[in-house]
Amino acid sequence: MFNLQALDLARMQFAFTVSFHILFPAITVGLAGYLAVLEGLWLKTRNDTYRDLYHFWSKIFAVNFGMGVVSGIVMAYQFGTNWSRFSDFAGPVTGTLLTYEVLTAFFLEAGFLGVMLFGWGRVGRRLHFFSTVMVSLGTLISTFWILASNSWMQTPSGFEVVNGQVVPTDWLAVIFNPSLPYRLAHMSIAAFVATAFFVGSSAAWHLLRGRDNPAIRTMLSMAMWMALIVMPIQIMVGDMHGLNTLEHQPAKIAAIEGHWQNRGNEPTPLILFGWPDMKAEKTRYAVEIPYLGSLILTHSLEKQVPALKSFAPEDRPNSTIVFWSFRIMAGLGMLMLFTGVWSLWLRKRGTLYQCRPFLYLAMFMGPSGLIAILAGWLTTEIGRQPWVVYGLLRTADASSNHSVAQMSLTLVLFVVVYFALFGAGFSYMMRLVRKGPKTNESAEISHAGAGQHPTPAHPLCATDTVEGDHRLSPNKKGK
User: pTM score, two decimals?
Assistant: First the structure.
């Protein structure tokens, strides 16, 4: 198949299934937390807006949860079918950690999911809220165990190799390996941010089409507060994660930076854009900023960042891919931060729900968090190559002994079935989003709404509504 080897096809198949799967748990983690907050606010305030939003988003959560479970089971089977040598080598660690995930997180979610989805009005309010919180907690526990396993593959610790197999010697060191704290925080925050922009995009879509009510406004408001508050934290966590990666996986950092060779004792520049050429061993068309690479990656204007030529060619990650996947992730992160800051500016002026340019931006930013997660995953996993367990087991030595024909057939089947099955599920989920939350029609703020209401002439919608307008001014409509 296109002159690819069985190993290449196995990697493509796993990358394809993981790329589908990673999107569903990310939204599941974020929506579970969002539902817990909504129900908590409803119990505290008795504001029916929070209740309506809870019922609306719980349906989308259920569909997303189901697709996540199905895609996760298929992905897990590949460890035995396509990567049997990896399972034989690292199974005592990774298999045990995934078992802990099932015994704790999955059982916790399964035990309370039914009460959460079908128990409204059938059980007490406190019990129902407790069930929602437990499901949310279960998603976070699941994230912990999955990332503990994957982080151990990135920075293995607490083990020894006996007869060609990993034997754990210190389970605390295995679980709390050097990269876990940073990767756990980074991924968890990413899930909440991705969900916030998914929710905010839905709200913007409805506002642009003239549906303006307290529920829609609450969706947009909560999403933009999340973007504004959490994105700066995510950037700081990302910086700490980068320092940790530089310490334990310097080749990955060199590949991300497209940095091939240091020049004497000069500080390392930051290459904003360029095209890393793996064969020529240089980054073509590089646009550099002097000193900035050293400043960002070492927090110093004197230290140098390790260069790719410091590593043997067979030990270098594919810089062409990770160079750009990282910049896609970082660029979207900056755009998400900008969206949050702009929302604050509009909120202060009372035009958050009427500014069409902002609403269009918020709508198109809907998939930005998920795209950033995929780009970050590509950066992390491809940047680990050629190792499947860093420094211990190469990817080429981890795959099963399958033929090209077998891998080609299964890859094609996966692509067809996944697009058909999950495409249908995604379409149904988007249909639910387009319907929007059911609210009392008398709660509509304006029959014209943001999509038809004349917006201020200022390009950034910072001016107030013209005095004397018979409709409520933005400041009276609420924030």
Answer: 0.87
